[in-house]
User: Fold these one by one.
Assistant:
Number 1:
Amino acid sequence: MTEPIESFAALNLPAPLLSALAEVGYETPSPIQAACIPLFMAGRDLLGEAQTGTGKTAAFALPLLARLDLNLKAPQALVLTPTRELAIQVAEAFQKYAHHMPGFHVLPIYGGQSMVIQLRALSRGAHIIVGTPGRVMDHLERKSLDLSNLKSLVLDEADEMLRMGFIDDVEWILEHTPAARQTALFSATMPDPIRRIAQRYLREPEQVKIRSATTTVAAIKQKYWQVRGADKLEALTRMLEIEEDFDAAIIFVRTKLATVDLADKLEARGYAAAALSGDLTQGLREQVIDRLKSGSLDIVVATDVAARGIDVPRVSHVINYDVPYDTEAYVHRIGRTGRAGRAGVAILFISPREMRMLKAIERATRQPIEPIALPTRGEVAERRVTQFKQQILDTIAEENLDFFYEVVRRMETEESVATRQIAAALAFLAQRERPLRPDGMEDPVASSRTESPYAVPSRGAPSRAVPSPRGESSYAASSAPTFDKPAWSERSEAAERKPRAEAPKRAFSASGVTVRYRIEVGKNQGALPKEIVGAIANEGGIDGKLIGQINLFDDYSTVELPELPNDLLETLKRTRVRQLPLRIRPAAPGEGEKTFARRPRADEAPKARRPREDEAARPRRPANADFSARPKREFSDAGSGGNKPPYRADKKPAGTKPPFDKPFAKRKER
Ligand code: ADP
Ligand code: MG
């Protein structure tokens, strides 16, 4: 490699772009930008491999803008992205960089937005289209999108498009665009199917690979907590309280149902939290991300797909509440923090059985992941007291308290009570809704602290190294307040609350009967076990853990599941994988003998390619049954949002706000 490129000007970008870059505050090109921009401007095909957060968007957006003919109001470039969030984000980036290019028009098109609006926008004309594969295909088929002037095509996050089953659509689009186009493919990883696409559709591509020791992952501190019988929700809330420099978090769970469930529980505990899943209408999803950006939300509970590509710099923490399916998903998840040069923290909840995944992640990120212990209630109390004291000091420093001095002075004389008594009573009143003594908190099984080989003492918490029957005694003896009430009798409290905390998500999971079901997709249809798991988990709201062995046969598969109630069976019959309804039913004896790994590598190739005709005659799927090769996001629409339960993503926290305007979890005030 040559000298590192110091400035965007050295890349021969036109002046309007340089001024826009100065305005957004980019000083130097990132490595992938420095490598790609000159090649792109020279018209070369590109194969770019770089982790999330390395600046891939500008790497293709800037040269596309530099070569644009503003006088030709027809799509000259098409960018394909796996999700609508990403399509919007990329379109916004174009807009930003083109700030000084009057008349420039970029149009995002994605499923879930009204066709009418899109058709109108398309007919008005745009220079650049950013879209998800399904919707772009729709418009090409309807001839509402004319790509005859197309000069460049960019595949952004190609590996994710593969993971989501869009790769056939992408190929279809590649075959229906002018052959003379320039093509660039960007991907965080290069699994074989992506390589094959590159070989087939790119002309002598220049390969640009940025080593994964990128700033982003390096800027993220990775930790894990071993889940040992303890309640994950309880652990989560304690961690949120104790974490240093907490600003905002994205919490990853596996199912749509879990996003809503956990977001509700966090909201009930005073956090400004909302769910983000493929179930929300487009408007609501955008609202959730905007609210996270603006600070009216601090926590978003999301599925992998829904959170893909979100770029909100204030996200300080990523919590892997449910383990990711593979290391790539993990890398994508944690890439939601450590954005724009900030520090980030990633916490992984992992069970002893899943320790192999931890090792795999360490290898993939080339970084150790450090074990953390569950914060004790004592530590939580200490943190709350510290924050409380700070709020008092801030109030003294900033507010005009004359009137209140007078109230206190009168009370001292009239009631002959001491200032300290008054202060203590006020402190009591002020903390009532969010007690300084978090005795509503269960201390999960003491053994998780004492027996775990991974429990490490941190932040000076000797109480954990020297467990006492009362658990918190050494804390009580240390700095913060000693509480007159006997320390929390954790065993009895934990025992009382346990059943609620571990209540199964759906009643059927308690029955304990496992049934082998037959579904009508198999190897010949290109079904992947993880797609089957995804479809069943998402549409059925079934915890992934309850999905047992999956056996793939040529034209059908079998799946072991807890016995399904009828309504759920009906839903799953209509659920689609690879666009085919599962038509699930109990398997006949003898059906389903062969074993396959349930979770193959993400880059595993679909076994068979769908015939074209079938793609063209693609059925429109019903609104509520279509996690499939091309998930609902592509089709669900405006109209269909109406019959979904009213998710609370847009709900303001209930009227039970603590008297302080921010929960204690937030420390960022000053
Ligand atoms: P990727 O697509 O590789 O995941 P993005 O294009 O989303 O990465 O960029 C990640 C973040 O870095 C964005 O917030 C973007 O604005 C910022 N960024 C990109 N290039 C630069 C640069 N040269 N200097 C400073 N920030 C940049
Ligand atoms: Mg990107």
Note: Residues 53 and 216 are 6 Å apart (CA to CA).
Number 2:
Amino acid sequence: MSSHNLFSALRAAFPADLNATAVETDEGLNYSWADLDRATAMMANLLQSLDLPEGSRVAVQVEKSVEAMMLYLATLRAGYVFLPLNTAYQSAEIEYFIGNAEPAVVVCSGANFGWVSKIAFKAGTQHVFTLNDDRTGSLIDRAATHSDQHQPVPRQADDLAAILYTSGTTGRSKGAMLTHGNMLSNALTLKDYWGWKTTGGPDGHGDVLIHALPIFHVHGLFVAIHGALINGSKMIWMAKFDPKRAIGYMAKATVFMGVPTLYVRMLAEPALNKAAVKHMRLFIAGSAPLLIETFTEWQERTGQTILERYGMSETAMLTSNPYAADKRYGQQSERRGGTVGFPLPGVQLRVRGDDGVDLPVGEIGGIQVQGPNVFKGYWRMPEKTAEEFTADGYFKTGDVGKVDERGYVTIVGRSKDLIISGGYNVYPAEIEGYINEMKGVAESAVVGVPHPDFGEVGVAVVIAKPGAAVQPDAIIAELKAKLANFKIPKKCFVVTELPRNTMSKVQKNLLRDQYKGLFA
Ligand code: MCA
Ligand code: AMP
């Protein structure tokens, strides 16, 4: 292939019958493959008409919609760099991302145009469009005036396709730079490894994916969308996850992808049983640890075994339990609960001790990875990039784990101070930074504790300055005014001291232990 544009590869996989349905929405709308082709052409032509510099970023904070997915595809098609932003982010968070990425184009909802455009124009962005989840907005209006024919812009495998911001344990968020080559290699690997089908299934056209996740992170945007498109598979599009409706859709679908919270919520529905899933071929979980209880209960209730996989924004997917026999590991096909399976074909994974030496089978250490899916580095942060790679080119994931004698990888913890709540990452350092700035606060520690729905949630433990009266509710309220809702600690305690070690460092493990039963 002379061009490595990811869009071209996805487009080449569209089925021959372009009038067939590509996406069916929960509002009852049907989009054909021809619709996807034409609408992304119009949007790509609009972007190109703006005469943007090479490598321009297109930052997008909009509600989930098929048009939002089209905008992503159009950005690839036009050769620009997509920057998705969670709709929960508030102005301080958006100001940082836009200031750091300096996008040439920003797309937001009409309702947020006032404050988002102010931030964008201040940061030098030339073009701000709106896109609403009801197919309206200036982006749609402007795209409608452009041709529905468009030749994808040639890209090299190493050219940037997207930047995904991931928070840091210290300092500000870092933009992980993913290339066309990173994402195409991962999509092709998963197509094969998860056995995507183009025949059979509910309507004879092969797999049908229930798309239930948000589309501003790797799981919903890349793993799910690329997975369906690279196989020419239809998607059933849920604007927002609802367990009852998701179970209902299983009668006409074959593949489901979700974070563990989605599985927990579906298990709470009496309608989930063997009959409801009888057409389903594959249930995939990831983004956070899937509890063995959820894995086992799902097996008992549905007769199907969830396939757990592991990935990161910086690397897309790294490991997966097998869908079918994996000959690299002696034809093993067992999906083992509590593990994240084998390194995907093409991914090299090793476990190293603090001394930088490879650990033997079964021993716990830092997980390091290498492969065509591993990102290019952090946007405009060469030192941070250098810190996160070893001298021989392995990326240090910050996850702690082991590989057993059969080759299965298990993640046992994280060396990074990170809470994963309902599949979203929350960095305690960021929350503590905000709390420590508040009036009357001397110090704070945020820790993750088990939660039956979100897996893990944050709890803030705060020390007041001498004589200051600090109210837990006021702290939560102040955080809510500034930060994305999923980052807000679910509880706050004001205490007189924090447990410390001999070096005066707060012992978060003791706090986690103390509050672990809070939501049991
Ligand atoms: C919502 N809330 C949360 C979360 N989501 N609190 C903690 N953690 C969360 N994840 C809170 C809100 O702040 C709000 O609180 C209340 O719950 C209801 O909000 P709502 O938006 O209605 O919640 P929901 O619709 O029930 O959302 C729950 C959810 C959602 C469906 C589980 O969080 C979700 O879609 N999670 C998936 C995230 C994801 O796609 N991660 C993939 C990252 P209040 O009322 O107090 O304001 S990619 C990745 O990790 C890697 C690469 C990988 O391996 O995939
Ligand atoms: P993100 O920054 O959103 O890309 O999140 C990546 C992190 O999610 C990884 O470094 C892991 O800590 C975690 N993660 C993803 N999948 C799994 C999984 N199946 N089990 C445990 N942790 C996971």
Note: The pocket of methylmalonyl-coenzyme A (ligand 1) is lined by residues 213-214, 217-220, 240-241, 259, 261, 286-287, 311-313, 421-424, 454, 457, 485-486 (CB under 6 Å).
